[in-house]
Amino acid sequence: MRKPSSGLAVHIQQETPISLDTSIACPSGEVLALVGPSGSGKSTVLRCIAGLNRPRRGRIVCRGEVWLDTDKGVFVAPRRRRVGMVFQSYALFPHLSAIENVMEALGDRPRATRRAEARRLLDLVHLAGLEDRKPAALSGGQQQRVAVARALARDPEVLLLDEPFSAVDKATRQKLYRELAELRQKLRMPVVLVTHDLDEAVLLADKLCILHRGRTLQEGAPFDVLARPASVDVARLIDLRNVFEGRVIEHRASAGVTRVSWGPYVLDARHQPAFAEGDVVAWVIRTAKVILHRRDRPSRGERENPIGGGVEEFIPLGETASIAMKVDGIPELPLFMSIPIHVAARNRIGLGERVTVSLLAEGIHLMPPDARTGNE
Question: Cα 362 vs. chain centroid, distance in angstroms?
């Protein structure tokens, strides 16, 4: 019988061999993505949950069952944790067929029922008819599905996915994304996904956990993290390029505005009263919130933080163009934006051209200052 849907709660600390100081929580039925650069501790966190690593200090509770509590001397062995784990390499037995690979994980079931249960799980991951093929006769996406079916054969309380899509091509990856989204609705268990691909994490996860050097820098809904990073470090890790420094001038609560100086400019930002008037702050704006003014006629929003400058970089990327703009009065750092190619052509955007943009107030997010940001 399933335990109550209390989800997964993890807190682990250690100095060696990999420094960790992180806390994560994932309710049943949700996907939590651990995102960060190589060496940030993402896979080590998964191994701690599975019991394959034993941290020096910490507590892990999954659906009401305590798997680790170093203060009380509790450590549940890996074989006793109901964990389904899918590795980057899938780790299938090459000499066994798909159904036999799944049956290997059903060792605690009566022998007479194993084949039928393995067949049901393969059908769940859309591999009906391929049960007798060995891994070498399966595509990368099909091997990944076998690995998922084998992980589910343990009747897990939590599903752990360690870079599960990295070994397949883009088209297959998109199909597997859809299948995982469908599968999670049926499973109703916490799912922890490790990935270095931010777009993948945003697409699949209910919550992101940004890890860096073994520490949680921020945890939250994907679009909250993207729009409102907690620090300059987070902004850089999620590849937000427009990070600058300014100073809070005043708060206008009635208008929902905080005014910030930036070089010769005074910008209206979303009201953010956590920063006092006079504070030096870092601020960030996503490229999607930098709006190009049309040359042929005025557009809405042109009075919202209008900024002029020259195009110093123009890079076509398929149907969009990445543009770096040297802002008048701000020589140190460029302002980046991305626009459709047809918009660039219609407005005659190219190297050396003068452009005007608006920085949408709702998209300007303030953060504590950082020594590596640009100068005011």
Answer: 22
DSSP assigned state of 140: H
| Beta-carbon count within 10 A of 296 CB | 7
Q: How far is CA 289 from CA 147, 201, 242, 285, 326, in A?
A: 41, 21, 11, 7, 17
> In this predicted model, what pLDDT tens digit does every residue of 241-282 receive, in sequence order?
999 999 999 999 999 999 999 999 999 999 999 999 999 999
Q: What is the mean pLDDT of the segment spanning 338-365?
A: 93
- pLDDT digit string, tens, across residues 193-245: 999 889 999 999 999 999 999 999 999 999 999 999 999 999 999 999 999 99
pTM for this prediction: 0.86
Q: Which two tokens stand for residue 27?
A: 């309710």
Residue whose C-alpha is closest to residue 49's, from 81, 20, 71: 81
Cα–Cα distance measured from residue 205 to residue 154, given in angstroms and rounded to the nearest whole number: 23
Ramachandran quadrant class, 196 (left: phi over 0; alpha: psi -120 to 50; beta: rest): alpha
- Provide the strand spans (E) within 190-331: 191-195, 207-212, 215-220, 243-252, 257-262, 265-270, 280-284, 290-292, 306-317, 320-327
Q: 285 and 363 in contact (C-beta within 8 Å)?
A: yes
Count Cβ atoms below 10 Å from residue 38 Cβ, excluding itself: 7
* pLDDT > 70 in the chain, percent: 95
193 close to 165: Cβ distance less than 8 angstroms: no
Between CA 367 and CA 275 the distance in angstroms is 9
Sorted by sequence, the CB contacts under 8 Å of residue 369 that are 6+ apart come out as 232, 245, 280, 281, 282
